[in-house]
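$ ./design --mode recover --in tokens.txt
reading tokens...
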């Protein structure tokens, strides 16, 4: 089956359906940065995005961690992580490299919510 970018998929939707998108959930086993690259039009709208951050998978997908972080910084100002304190904690997107470092490259991963605010 041929691959298609997320902008290509959204572009095929009827306009009302495309405009109604209010949240995107992505879990593509480390290829999230590639999806972000193929969704410039969609993600520039400032939608919140739930995505897995899995440093090992990101590197395995052929993308460097700093490249992944730079891509995320194009679209979002913050990310949120569920912490053991049983609450979501908001971080500046500039701290995403530290979060990747915290997870390490041995296989740990976590879901985050990327937001514009």
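writing sequence...
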């Amino acid at each position: 089956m041929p691959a298609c970018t997320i902008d290509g998929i959204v572009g095929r939707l009827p306009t009302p359906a495309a405009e109604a998108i209010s949240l995107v959930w992505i879990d593509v086993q480390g290829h999230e940065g590639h999806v972000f690259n193929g969704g410039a039009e969609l993600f520039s709208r400032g939608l919140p995005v739930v995505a897995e951050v899995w440093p090992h998978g990101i590197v395995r997908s052929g993308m460097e961690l700093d490249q992944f972080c730079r891509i995320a910084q194009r679209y979002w100002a913050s990310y949120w992580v569920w912490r053991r304190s049983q609450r979501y904690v908001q971080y500046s997107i500039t701290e995403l490299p530290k979060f990747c470092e915290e997870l390490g490259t041995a296989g740990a991963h976590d879901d985050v919510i990327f937001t514009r605010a």
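exit 0
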